[in-house]
Design brief:
Number of helices: 8
Structural class: mainly alpha
Number of strands: 0
Distance between the termini: 49 Å
Strand content: under 5%
Length: 173
């Protein structure tokens, strides 16, 4: 790459990085936005031939940043769904009376971190109740059930972490 192109990329980086970071943060709502913008500039630097002669470089940067944000969110959504299923499997497995002291203690610890409503919703969910049935039993909105489940699973993911994966891999694989 020519020195002139490197200087141009450095100037673009200095000029647009903060704005692109705020733009990316608006999409992903986490500090990974910083990495996304870094990746956009790395791709711009590695591009052959460089697109610096393009009149709409700002449009390119915005589009590239948005596309990377959307890719990140799609990937995060997939990971979250798999982790949710794993949490459901563990809670269900434990509810079926499988006795493993370490797992049971960890589940109880996480359950104690939940609010009373979240605990009730998770308990009914592990008994095979649908969101509508849970809403009817607890006399709350189905959307509220969904919110309680999502927040409860987040507590489990944040506090159980990779222990869940390692535990089940060691038991079943």
């Amino acid at each position: 790459m020519k020195e002139k192109d490197e200087d141009m990329i450095e100037q673009l980086y200095t000029t647009y990085f903060n704005g692109l970071y705020r733009f990316a943060y608006h999409y992903v709502m986490c500090d990974y936005a910083y990495d996304i913008v870094q990746e956009v500039f790395i791709r711009l630097y590695e591009r052959k031939p460089p697109i610096l002669s393009d009149d709409n470089i700002v449009g390119y940067l915005l589009t590239a940043t948005k596309n990377r944000c959307m890719n990140f969110l799609r990937h995060k959504d997939i990971v979250d769904k798999h982790e949710e299923r794993l949490v459901e499997a563990i809670l269900s497995w434990n509810a079926d009376g499988n006795d493993d002291g370490e797992l049971k203690a960890e589940i109880e610890r996480c359950m104690n971190l939940l609010s009373d409503k979240q605990r009730a919703v998770v308990s009914l969910k592990t008994k095979g109740k649908s969101y509508q049935e849970i809403a009817d039993i607890l006399k709350i909105n189905v959307g509220t059930v969904n919110t309680h489940i999502a927040r409860a699973y987040k507590v489990f993911r944040d506090n159980f972490g990779t222990l869940l994966i390692y535990y089940f891999m060691s038991r079943f694989l």
